[in-house]
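Exercise 7. Given the components listed, write out the predicted structure of the assembled complex. Treat all entries as one system.
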Amino acid sequence: MVETMLTAVSGVFLLAGGLFGIMGGIGPLRFPDFYTRLHAAGITDTLCAFLIIVGLVIQAGLALVSIKLMLILVFMVFTAPTASHALARAGMAAGDDPGTLEGEPAPVAPLDSSGEPSSNS
Amino acid sequence: MRYLFSLAVVLSLLWLGMSGVYKPLMYILGAGSVVFVVWMSRRMDVVGVEHNPVLYSWRLPIYWLWLLWEIVKSNIEVSRAALWPGKLVRPRVLKVPMSLGSAVGKVTYANSITLTPGTVTLLLEDDHLEVHALLESSAASLESGDMEAKIAWLENHK
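Answer.
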């Protein structure tokens, strides 16, 4: 009974992780420029990897493999932002300016400006 | 001394977690490696130099949980944007002012921003960050200053 439930729960995690992986694949195809695609690739680095590893840990249970899986997660959490930042810096250094969806240069606005339309979060 | 001790503990736990072969000879080799690495790190003067002082604080796990929740939320937002890019994608470059004092705090802030999908740190300066934001909601969550407040709270452990 417990076995079945654990399998089901880990299956849900693995499926959700796979779904986010697909999103991380669709995003770079549909977003307009280099920097926006970087955000989409970030999905695969974070939630996709996290969900898949949690699913695998649930399958493995209390075992040495789980420790190794958690270590993979820790290393990903520390290296992924460094890699993203390095990519973004490389883009800036290569002279690729961030643009909007229409291809115009992205607005650079200080945070306290009131000109921007407010968000709808 | 505290750093050397905790380095030895972490290395030993790492070795025990990775090894899986628990025989006397292996224990001796493992202990030898730990002692050698600690001695070497001491000689190299790298122990406790770039150490994160909040490592021993109870606030760190709470910050991680909060960050995980932020990552989950923004992942869902960015996934939605991947399906309907025309409606949701509003790329912007933001200058985010920052009043965090310590270098570790600044790096934590910049890394946390990059780790959250929808925002990538382009530039880290002394008193501000340049951030590329994908969606209006990701720009708004930065504008609210929640994350900086959380890191300031994390740094004020004592």
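Discussion: Confidence is low (pLDDT under 50) at residues 111-121 of chain A. Residues 2-93 of chain A form one domain.
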